[in-house]
Design brief:
Layout (H helix, E strand, L loop, with lengths): L2 E4 L2 E10 L2 E10 L3 E4 L4 E2 L9 E3 L9 E4 L2 E4 L14 E3 L6 E9 L4 E8 L13 E6 L35 E8 L2 E6 L2 E7 L3 H8 L16 E4 L6 E10 L1
Antiparallel strand pairs: 1-4, 2-3, 5-17, 6-9, 7-8, 8-17, 9-16, 10-13, 10-17, 11-12, 11-16, 13-14, 14-15
């Protein structure tokens, strides 16, 4: 953590009479050091801006992604797919050990996700070819919810939530992802719903038994970008903040 040291100089002066003349003596005293911690959390959408993000695969973010009053959303009704609008967006920066906080809400029958440890390279067409996903879903309306490990809060297609704490569609959910030296915790609405360790033989067995088994290097990168998924449904995100650990 960075510390800012502020040295306060106190100026004291006094008059003295010496041989009929006035002299001014000034002395400077060093005061106590005040430590001010640097801001730890980074708002990834500060000032209603996409300046920390770009479209996966390169290029500027199309008009389908919008920010209003601190809320980021995918305007699915006005997406021109042929013009390249929409698509997943990713952070410009890569992260290894981090604590991510964000709020999300999904439209009725909607599906989306937040994907992390994304390795952006030409050989990987999609963010989910390398990155892990914390599922965003309307559990009551989307057919994906019928598949175990595809429900909201799950580590998608890998680990089922220990309990279901998701709120109905249209309501805000509070989520957290803590990844630190291979230890991974997913938190939904204040409850840790997934806790696991990455990059172990047990982790490799999970991947080998999932839909990602034929995706080379899936879940192997220890540093990567964070992505918001365009799954074709209206989804909202806000208060997306990260702290490096």
């Amino acid at each position: 953590m960075k510390k800012h040291y502020i040295i306060v100089a106190a100026l004291a002066s006094f008059l003295a009479s010496c041989s009929g003349e006035k002299a001014i003596e000034t002395e400077t005293k060093e005061m106590a050091v005040v430590e001010t911690p640097a801001e730890e959390w980074t708002d990834l959408f500060a000032n209603n801006s996409f300046s920390n993000w770009h479209k996966y695969g390169g290029g500027e973010i199309g008009n389908a992604w919008k920010i209003e009053n601190g809320e980021v959303y995918l305007d699915v009704e006005n997406i021109d797919r042929q013009a390249g609008e929409g698509g997943d967006i990713v952070t410009n920066e890569e992260f290894d050990n981090f604590h991510l906080k964000y709020d999300w809400k999904i439209a009725q029958n909607g599906n989306s996700g937040l994907i992390f440890y994304v390795h952006e390279a030409p050989e990987y067409e999609n963010t989910y070819n390398t990155g892990l996903e914390m599922q965003v879903l309307d559990n009551e309306g989307h057919p994906d919810a019928k598949i175990i490990s595809h429900r909201a809060g799950d580590l998608y297609d890998l680990i089922v939530s220990s309990e279901e704490t998701v709120k109905p569609y249209g309501e805000w959910n509070s989520a957290e992802i803590i990844a630190n030296n291979g230890k991974l915790d997913l938190i939904l609405n204040g409850t840790t719903v997934v806790s696991t360790t990455l990059w172990t033989p047990e982790w490799e067995a999970l991947v080998a038994d999932s839909k990602f088994k034929d995706m080379p290097n899936f879940g192997t990168f220890k540093k990567g970008r964070i992505a918001l998924q365009d799954h074709g449904d209206l989804v909202y995100f806000k208060n997306v903040k990260i702290k490096e650990l």
